[in-house]
């Protein structure tokens, strides 16, 4: 079979790309290792994805936003950052950018379901599940993929969108700068006594990092970052004891708390690919840029990649150029690096500074928040970045 494009990974990034390229005379195959049922009805995975206005606009154009159930979409009005036991908070307000909200929080499960529905409607997109690429052969400008069942595909372009630990990236011989933060993030939904007023909290405590993402009603996604052994201990706790521990960790700022979902743990490893493209191939989503979740930009960057790669390929296709040729792919690489590298680096620096419990770091981070709070243009800049529609 010789499709125009093969995408490995039917995660939100891979499926959004398939949808964005559909309807332009290209044949697209998406390969996924999971069963189709797991894509059609994805399990709750604890992730609540903060989406910027720009990401929302793209999801609307791709026909995903309209498919999200209202109960799975919550308003993210403002955000505040605390340091240590201090009650002082750096506040980022939507109104600083003349907007009503900084963005929305959407359950990853709902995004995945909507992405599957949107892609499976496309006649030019073929989904092959419970399979993967056994071998890749690249010869004189040609790409040959041997699948696990022995099937052979010869696409004009291969897109790897198979997560930050991408096997396809490896098979293509593309390295990545991996950053292991040595911590694990635990996420779950909790009900609480006091109102969150649709404000997200990031709280860099000493010895732990806590975040609270406001959902609908008096529920929030609780995000706790600790060394892996401590997270394992918490996962063993009975729900009531777990809730008491969370109340204590949040210093009862939200009053009584109750666990209302399963909890999920993610080891914190960042990834930035050394090259975004190669001979007839490109990387997308977490396979290209796997962010630390603290700045909530992983999928937002995945969507930036979808926009950049689909625009580039469709322009090449419109001019009857080879979509797997070097020039369009080099353009995609330049644009993606420009859009992602500064925040990737800034995020890693922020994590280093705000999770270090050494005295100089503690003092510097407290001072940093106060300086940032005094810099209205900086806070306005962040708010504008989050609320810009594209
Ligand atoms: C706790 C947490 C909170 C987050 N919060 C935010 C947030 O607030 N905002 C934000 O923008 N982002 C956030 N993110 C990041 C976001 O979840 C990811 O960026 C996004 O899910 C990546 O999508 P993807 O499609 O690139 O990869 P994935 O979601 O990892 O999907 C990859 C797909 O490829 C398949 N696959 C893997 N290997 C193979 C293979 N070899 N062959 C075939 N198929 C394969 C997998 O089964 C999967 O379906 C968060 C992440 C975490 C962990």
UniProtKB/TrEMBL annotation:
Residues of the FAD-binding domain: 4-313
One GO biological process term is:
ubiquinone biosynthetic process
Protein source organism? Ectopseudomonas guguanensis
Indicate whether Flavoprotein appears among the record's keywords. yes
Concerning PANTHER family, the annotation shows: MONOOXYGENASE NMA2164, UBIQUINONE BIOSYNTHESIS MONOOXYGENASE COQ6, MITOCHONDRIAL
Q: Which Gene3D superfamilies match?
A: FAD/NAD(P)-binding domain (3.50.50.60)
Per its record, what are the GO molecular function terms? FAD binding; monooxygenase activity; oxidoreductase activity, acting on paired donors, with incorporation or reduction of molecular oxygen
> What domain of life does the native source organism fall in?
Bacteria
Its UniProt pathway annotation is: Cofactor biosynthesis; ubiquinone biosynthesis
Could you identify this protein by its name? Ubiquinone biosynthesis hydroxylase, UbiH/UbiF/VisC/COQ6 family
